[in-house]
Amino acid sequence: MSSVSRLKKSKYWYARYRLPNGKRATRSTKLTDKRKARELAQQWEDAALGELTATHIQRVMSDIYKKTTGTAVPSFTVRDYLNKWTAAKVPQVTPSSGDKYRSCIAEFLRLLGDRADQPLRHVSEADLLAFRDASAKLARNKTTNGKLTMLAAAFRDAWMDGYPCQIPGYPWLGYPGNSFVHATGPDGEAS
């Protein structure tokens, strides 16, 4: 059961809530209203104990962000972010590389269809695997791997920029839980 208390000389309420390992955490709510602080403490405890879905946790965190900053969490649709990312990358590379970036992103967005207009966090590793498989039917594995590298870089940059998204990508990107596999030829080697 979560609770709130106020420390001496502080105008803010502090939330105390349980963590999955049974220990208790204490964190400032940055709120002066006790009722709102209690609600927030309960939301934090529910999130910490895994009693909420990932989408609900993101919604709770977005609400917390909005309550504390007065502005909405910046977010993008898949299409908006990838187009923005491409527009920023193209001037940094040669014209032929820029064409490859634009082509790769357009191909991925076509594969997603209407889902390209959903929030960035809805792209999953399964989407990249489908893209890899579709691309591998039409191009050499080396070309497919190049496209996957571009997409992985785009999602890495989104994550680094603080935009909520699942992090589909390669293990060498350094994110825990990634198990993405390069397209390979019959001998197991990238071709």
CATH-derived topology of the largest domain = DNA polymerase, domain 1
> What is the second-level CATH architecture of the largest domain?
Orthogonal Bundle
What is the CATH C-level name of the largest domain? Mainly Alpha
List segments where confidence is low: pLDDT < 50 over at least 5 consecutive residues: 168-191
**H/E element sequence:** EEEHHHHHH
Secondary-structure class:
mainly alpha
Provide the spatial order of strands within the biggest beta sheet: 1-2-3
Outline: elongated
Q: N- to C-terminal separation?
A: 56 Å
Written account of the structure:
- With 191 residues, the protein is mainly alpha-helical.
- It has 6 helices and 3 strands.
- It has a 3-stranded antiparallel beta sheet, covered by helices on one side.
- It is elongated and about 65 Å long.
- It starts with a strand and ends in a 31-residue tail after the last helix.
List key phrases describing it.
191 residues; mainly alpha; DNA polymerase, domain 1; 2 domains; three-stranded antiparallel beta sheet; 6 helices; 8% strand; disordered C terminus
Write the layout of secondary structure elements.
Layout lengths: L2 E4 L6 E6 L5 E5 L5 H15 L5 H16 L8 H12 L5 H18 L12 H14 L2 H20 L31
Antiparallel strand pairs: 1-2, 2-3
Helix pairs in contact: 3-4, 4-5, 5-6
Brief description of this entry?
The chain is mostly helical and 191 residues long. The chain is built from six helices and three strands; from the N terminus they run βββαααααα.
